[in-house]
Amino acid sequence: MTAAETGALLAETMVTIIKLGGPPLIAALAVGVMIALFQAVTQINEATLTFIPKLLVLGVTMMLTGSFMFTTLATYTRLLFDRMVAIGGS
Length: 90
Hints:
Blueprint: H1 3-42, H2 51-89
Helix pairs in contact: 1-2
């Protein structure tokens, strides 16, 4: 495996990580900011107030993007196995 192939594989890994982790993290961040603004406006300082809404939004996000995330992970896994077979065969 050459340095260029290794670099391409690393780049593909980073893109896959962003595709898999991005939607849940962005959803949790958005809900966290909205709840923080609500707490700042109403002066309610309850640490447990953010847990349930974030959990619900993460569940909805996973249901909406689950098939996309599975397809992305399956494609990346096939790519890795194909590369391993190519390395082992040469």
